[in-house]
Specification:
By secondary structure, this protein is α+β, with helices and mostly antiparallel strands. It has a domain of about 150 residues: NADH Oxidase, CATH 3.40.109. About 35% of the residues lie in helices and about 10% in strands. The chain is built from 9 helices and 4 strands, in the order ααβααβαααβαβα. It has a 4-stranded antiparallel beta sheet. The protein is globular. The structure holds flavin mononucleotide (FMN). Flavin mononucleotide binds next to α4 and β3.
Length: about 220
């Protein structure tokens, strides 16, 4: 069974199959109006390689996760996990895993997120999807569990990136690093695996390279 073919949820499972009280989950209240526009999210947002020293605060990190977690995942699986590196010591631990071109921008960025995922995400499904035994769909199906963890963890990384832009931060995603080194240095003891890195902060627009082109509609899309 693919995760696009998951059975319809049982809407009235009764107390025996709903071990966790299903209180409504809402995003944490936004303390300030976000500077939200198509320009902020897409049209003027760029991938940054040079950073101003302004920090990424604890409050911003918590707001980022409060927004990210509200994005949809299949069966509400929520496999994305996020490790925020801000100290010079944490960055030094990351340095040996980085490809050469990513070292300077990453050490300069106020925050680097290891966007990771939990391959055992399904152990939380009795809480996250209590209306049916969703854990069993994945617990004995490694290919489905692996694809679901990576697909939805990647989506959550993209939600994080867009959430960061929405609250006024700049971003730089990176896949140029050694995943196994990052995993053994930071993640294995947590049971997580790395997907990609995301530098966060306030970019220096004077250091931006020219905007690379994008594919035209007919090169990337079809309407049937
Ligand atoms: C998943 C992913 C991985 C990337 N990896 C790297 C990287 O390792 N190093 C790098 O310099 N840029 C990396 N980039 C940045 C892309 O080259 C950049 O986002 C793209 O060219 C668009 O640039 P723009 O946002 O300024 O238009 C990556 C982007 C994504 C989405």
């Amino acid at each position: 069974m693919s995760d696009t073919e998951t059975p319809a949820p049982v809407m009235d499972p009764g107390p025996a199959s709903a071990p966790i009280a299903a209180a409504p989950i809402a995003a944490e209240p936004e303390p300030a109006a976000a500077p939200l526009s198509l320009e902020t999210l897409f049209l003027e947002a760029r991938t940054h390689y040079a950073w101003r020293p302004d920090p990424v605060t604890d409050d911003e990190i918590h707001r980022l996760y409060a927004l990210t977690r509200m994005g949809p995942t299949s069966a509400n699986s929520s496999p994305g996990r996020f490790l925020f590196l801000r100290t010079p010591e944490a960055k030094e631990r990351l340095r040996p895993a980085l490809s050469a071109g990513n070292i300077a921008p990453t050490l300069a960025a106020p925050c680097t997120v290891i966007v990771a995922y939990d391959p055992r995400f399904f152990d939380k499904l009795p809480t996250l999807y209590p209306t049916t035994d969703a854990r069993s769909w994945f617990a004995n199906n490694d290919p489905l569990a692996t694809a679901t963890a990576f697909r939805n963890g990647t989506l959550q990384g993209a939600y994080l990136l867009m959430a960061a832009r929405a609250i006024g931060l700049d971003c730089a995603p990176m896949s140029g690093f050694d995943n196994s080194k990052v995993d053994s240095e930071f993640l294995t003891w947590r049971g997580w695996k790395s997907n990609f890195l995301l530098n966060l902060g306030h970019g220096d627009p004077t250091e931006l390279p020219p905007r690379p082109p994008r594919l035209d509609f007919d090169d990337a899309c079809a309407i049937l």
